[in-house]
Amino acid sequence: MEIKRLFDILYNQQEKQTLEVCLAKKTGETWKTYSTQEYIDIANSVSRGLLKIGIKKGDKIAIVVDNNCPEWNFLDIGIQQVGAISVPVYSTISAEEYEYIFNDAEVKVCFASNLELISKVSETQKKTPSLEYIYSIEKLQDFPHWEEILDSGNKNENQNEVEQIKNSVKEDDLATLIYTSGTTGKPKGVMLSHKNLVSNVIASRKRIPPLGEKPKALSFLPICHVFERMIIYLYQYSGISIYYAENMDKIGDNLKEISPQVMTVVPRVIEKVYGKIYETGMNSGAVKSKIFAWALNLIEDYDPLRKDKPLSWYLKYKVANKLVFSKWREGLGGKMVTLVSGSAKLSEQLNRMFWAAGIPILEGYGLTETSPVISVNSFNKNGFEIGSVGKPLKNVDVKIAEDGEILVKAPSVFKGYYKNPAKTKEAFTPEGYFKTGDIGVINSKGILKITDRKKQIFKTSGGKYIAPEPIQNKMLEIPFIAQIMVVGEGQKMPCAIIQPNFDYIRNWAEKNNLNLDLDPKKITENKQVIDEIQKGIDDKNKHFGHWEQVKRFVLTPEEWTIDNDLLTPTLKMKRKNIKERYIELYNELYEN
């Protein structure tokens, strides 16, 4: 069948490869699974129930969940089939942001997963005239449950009406309104049509490597983000069973339980996984820690495209693989074919290590406005390069502007910003290319490399331009550093605000028998810690021009998290918020 609307993907699966396990989530000690047919039946019940409460084509319906779950999918398809528009919302945003989004989108119905979120939404309802109905996904006392919609739609009496509306939905119709979390300013509503997302799904399919029979994926990144959401559609289009992780703390357990072949990640997750691997390896006893360090040193410059090392290296690698890297793979379930990384730039060093360990990471690039994938690496040697984001998808036209900005034209590029024609016009060139705001280059093989965010590049008082991202990525190779933000716009030199890796530092202190006060504030004031970080920065500074080198740094006494509003829900730094929160520390950098 021809796939033109997002819900066509599900019916295509029914026609071509019905799955016994299409969706799954952990309930108690067992995995509750849903077949393709059950998925369709529940989605149709949702559609019928929505029509019975008066939902019409074009109405906006918000979905807010704290953890990914099949209910999100049932609601998503049910909403689409009646021509309504879904408004997925992050669970971690503030009450003020809920109020802004719900009013801007004129949300009519909201489904929220738990009591905390229901309470937030209920508070918002008082200031949102359009919001008529709120349903909980968990069963809660005193709140309508989402199954009331299912129950009212259980009879097939109005299925003909659902079918008529489904047939009237066109590929250019608006499917969803996604409010970008953003690192500055108020969120903008990105209008994505069925065609935008479907074209991205179909074009991305060719980049998935062979995964074997009955492949499984584990999903934990927020499904309200366009990256994970498109990937979920892609899994369905590719016949991959989707298992939803219980929560961030249980991912390790869930990986071992289901042994998936594929999983999406963001760089911060890879950094945390490697941090735990490193701590375990370096604290596993005198002999084992030496073997671990030897194995890491062996693969430091590993490149999967090069096979020119001496035979002695491959013999050593065989030993390292058996003694060290096989344990990494076991930790991911033992059958992982690939991890797909997006949202931010991945450290080249980490990428090399994971490839060498037999856990290939395919790094990609995109934005909410491009549905999202613009380019992604593949297992094809001509479409892969460490440090790059691969070749653009076949239906994506990419060119580099004179100032280095990446410009994109494709069927996956969004329809515009909701209620904001001025911002929409500003986002495109006169020739109709979307301005990504990222700086990049395309090499002779047609592979795209991102060098920085256009808006993050700053100029020092001496007139030198500084691109912070490459510097930050290099400094993150220092195990004492968890997060780093290079600053210095309008100042005489680049400096850095650093969040120490408190867990690593505590283990380091214990291993070295240091009498270290483990309070975060005391850690940031400890001379030995400061000296170790300075030593690392001095080493990494060698990779940069004198004007780019980090001259001074300060340490923050707390972690940067989503909850304290220093990271976006996709774990990107909110530069403005970080600077404002630590303005006194920032001022210390430039006092003399």
From TrEMBL:
Signal peptide: none
Superkingdom of the organism of origin: Bacteria
UniProt keyword terms in alphabetical order: ATP-binding, Ligase, Nucleotide-binding
Keyword set includes Magnesium: no
Enzyme class name: ligase
GO molecular function, one term: long-chain fatty acid-CoA ligase activity
InterPro entries found in the cross-reference section: AMP-binding, AMP-binding_CS, AMP-dep_synth/lig_dom, ANL_N_sf
Classification via Pfam families: AMP-binding
CC annotations in GO: membrane
AMP-dependent synthetase/ligase domain residues: 25-418
EC number(s) recorded for this UniProt protein: 6.2.1.3
Listed PROSITE patterns: AMP_BINDING
Name of the protein this chain belongs to: Long-chain-fatty-acid--CoA ligase FadD15
